[in-house]
Amino acid sequence: MEHITKNTKKRSFISRRWGTILGLIVIAIAVVSVLLSGPHEVEHDSLFAPPAAATIVVTNQVADTALHQTYVYQDVHLSFTRATLASKFSDDFKLHSKYVVRVYLDTTNTLKDAIGVDYVSLTSLILPNGTKVGGKLASINAAVYPGEKQSGYIDFPLNEKIDLTRIQIQFNNTVLA
Length: 177
Fold this sequence. Notes:
Immunoglobulin-like; 2 helices
């Protein structure tokens, strides 16, 4: 014979209605806190247009000089145009040195195919005392597409001020004149 038992409900401290309200309040607080503390995207005017370029702030600019050095690397024309020595650039996140030399360059690919150029490993800065410093950060895209012109920079970390008019650029083991 079956024994019939009466179901007993567990009694909670708060009613079902108050539990639902309390749960919604907790979720609302969590959503608001995520929205306020999460990463913020840069807003721009158009869905299809790229965002505007950020303004770069230079801290304690020491020197700036024009460079007129060119090189052709696997049919990619490189033109080193300017060098700036400063304590810091606002878009520098990797370099932790007293000074940074930022060398600006323009490139054009004359081939019919895309090519990859590792600017950081191929470019060195030769200081007035003969010391060679390798690049640490490049803003220019390593992929160079046919007929496309690019502009960017390569950063070189330094621990002392130098005379920018006496630096030399070395690209692909060739010292540029």
